[in-house]
Amino acid sequence: MATSPSARITPRPETALVRRARRINRILAETYPEARAELDFTNPYELLVATILSAQSTDKRVNQVTAELFRRWPGPVALAGADRVEMEELIRPTGFFRAKTDSLLRLGRVLVDDFAGEVPGTLAELVTLPGVGRKTANVVLGNAFGVPGITVDTHFGRLARRWGWTASKDPDTVEAEVGALFPKKDWVMLCHHVIWHGRRRCHARNPACGACPVSHLCPVFGEGETDPVKAAKLVREPRG
Which of 4, 27, 24 lies closest to 16, judged by CA? Predict the structure, then answer.
């Protein structure tokens, strides 16, 4: 007898994909026990500003300018009154410095006018701020407020597709599909583990497959160098 559509059971992602994904995360956690946000910050305001500056730049380069930036403009009130030319010159090394300066000046004013000089702690409020999208908001929520979120940057999206966790290039879809594979409590550290791996071993071009701790779980093993000795030479720290 044929099974009626109403009698069919829609499979949940609790299958080999979930088990493999969670095992990858556990191995990466052991490989990178020091994994964390690589931007320097001491409070939500500093992390928000640093994350905005990190667009199309590297964390190391951003860290080279933020110490002085936070000394000159230590909070939203000071930021709102910053001199445009002075700020542009300071953040020039991060790239797109004119657009970023515009975002930061507007950010300071909005935080002062609409949020009493405090960085809001919800996704809905954060994404209303100048220069802030879901990725930046999730970085701030997860690392400054302890609110679970998935940060879909270039590395995270690339590795999630490489491992078969998603087939999408849309960040919102990647966030939803990968989030369904892991408990919320794991989301923030999952992002750190994946991003650290993408920056150090699983490069976009010529990944270090032979020096990868999760190579036996990777559906596309062999896209990069598989010889362990040669692959070890491809392992690197992020460049500034």
Answer: 24
Q: What sign results for the dihedral spanned by CA atoms 95, 188, 122, 77?
A: negative
Q: Which domains does the chain have, with CATH numbers?
A: 16-32+149-232 (1.10.1670.10), 44-144 (1.10.340.30)
Cα 154 vs. chain centroid, distance in angstroms? 8
Residue 233 bears catalytic tag: no
**What is the Cα–Cα distance from 140 to 50, expressed in whole angstroms?**
10
Q: Which of 59, 83, 102, 153 is catalytic?
A: 153
Q: Tell me which amino acid residue 21 is.
A: A
pTM of the model: 0.88
pLDDT at 240: 52
Catalytic entry in 59, 100, 135, 186? 135
Question: pLDDT (tens digit, 9 = 90+) per residue, 24-50?
Answer: 999 999 999 999 999 999 999 999 999
Q: Is 113 a catalytic residue?
A: no
